[in-house]
């Protein structure tokens, strides 16, 4: 049977949504639900990891204010959202099951799923039978709110459920860190989380210095993604409260999108003509092409787009494909690198 789960964008941005997106120190992958271990390894960073995994009972409060209790740190974790999947991998814990393996592999390249990881269906409709077959000791889900029926339905499997929120526009970077820390607590990997977050801080500091030393024509910028529907291009600018806007600000840049945004992800909606209002701002945009239709190709053929100052002056930069704009610390590092490369390469 299938369990309806709201996709992140559709859940919190109804009008603005894009209708689309274990123990410490080991790189061995847990056995699959069928009992056959995968031969794939986790990242090189995990191969070199020497941080400790906590033991003993775990008690945490999830993002819905629920108390989640475990007899010991979770080892067999099923994850139903990509950011949380990435976080788990960054903690050197291989999930026993995830939602939409192909989608994760396309949109989030910050971490690599072990080959053979069980796929439990889409993020919108994961399959309860597949989840049960993976035999998890914890399920991590992204919930839309306190009344989201998903949590109760998942709990019917008799497995503890950690309900998380993907974003908080009041403090996007802080929330990303807190979510990472919460997953680390449930898996006993807090020491590893501290290492990863320290690396992120160092990455930010070094990148900030590089950009400060660059002779930029403007620090104003807009990051956006988009999609094609009915032959029309819709753009989604990242405004105040968006994670990529916050990263840009940390690097010394100034977000230029002042249009309406949603209160959770800080995302707006406009057409190509709407970008005229940001003046001389530099553009950054998602370089991952949606198989449903390439908005990037549509931009290239649009006269308004090609006449915008940033485009005419070569200041419109596509990020490399596979950087997940709603990811964790490792995706954030990829984004930092993309900003620096775009702004400092001659």
Automatic annotation (TrEMBL):
Subcellular location: Cell envelope
GO BP, one annotated term: iron coordination entity transport
Main subcellular localisation: other
Fe/B12 periplasmic-binding domain mapped to chain residues: 76-346
Keyword Transport included in the entry's annotation: yes
InterPro entries reported for this sequence: ABC_transptr_periplasmic_BD, Bact_iron-sidero_bind
Any one Gene Ontology cellular component term annotated for this protein: outer membrane-bounded periplasmic space
Keyword terms, alphabetized: Signal, Transport
Extent of the signal sequence: 1-25
The keyword Transport is assigned to this record: yes
SUPFAM superfamilies documented for this protein: Helical backbone' metal receptor
One of the Pfam families matching this protein, by short name: Peripla_BP_2
Family: Belongs to the bacterial solute-binding protein 8 family.
Alphabetized PANTHER family for the sequence: IRON III DICITRATE-BINDING PERIPLASMIC PROTEIN, IRON(3+)-HYDROXAMATE-BINDING PROTEIN FHUD
Protein name in UniProt: Iron-siderophore ABC transporter substrate-binding protein
Species name: Brachybacterium saurashtrense
